[in-house]
Amino acid sequence: MGRLNAGILPVTAFQQNCTILFDMDDKTGVVVDPGGDVDSILQALEQNGIKAGAIWLTHGHIDHAGGAMELKEALGVEIIGPHEADRQLLENIESQAKMFGVGDAVRNCAPDRFLIEGDRVSFGSHEFEVLHCPGHAPGHVVFYNRTAKFAHVGDVLFRGSIGRTDLPGGDHAALIRSIKEKLLPLGDDIGFICGHGPGGQFGEERRSNPFLV
Fold this sequence. Notes:
The protein has 213 residues and is an alpha+beta fold. It contains 7 helices and 13 strands. The strands form 3 sheets. The chain has a 6-stranded mixed β-sheet. The protein has a 5-stranded mixed β-sheet with strand order 1-2-3-4-5, covered by helices on one side. A two-stranded antiparallel ribbon has the order 10-11. A hairpin with an 8-residue loop joins strand 7 and strand 8 (141-145).
């Protein structure tokens, strides 16, 4: 069994955590949520000798998927995820760019494969379960590695906060259900990386996150 590691590269004006998940031994991996600054992502892969075999998307917002098509072409790999409920968001990334006034360095995204609850995705010996966790976005998914007791939660949960629900397709009640019914039951000892800012552990969020008490 290889050793799982993660490198975080904040990208774009949104300071979104583009995450490179990789095996420390054979240097295979995936890029999660390449929102932009694709040259920086490619440089990080090259400098660390990591061979990314796929792009995984947690959801369809511009800061997570805006650079996916450019990176796909550069690496020659597939885009996997999110859930199909985010298809409309992905097809309108360029419109999102106009709305946020962030220029034209992004492209609409067409994943090669959408994911559903219970799917499994992997690289090397590392398998991740797919959890469909709507609320921040209708098609948001979380990638959970049971062996490593680790989850990439995108914008569902943050340290001391939760994902915003005031964007199109947002649903506060659904987001709270996703966290309380799908994430927290995985266990207090599950560590997580999120889409913005520092990660944490589910137990700490269950005890102290003001949105969950």
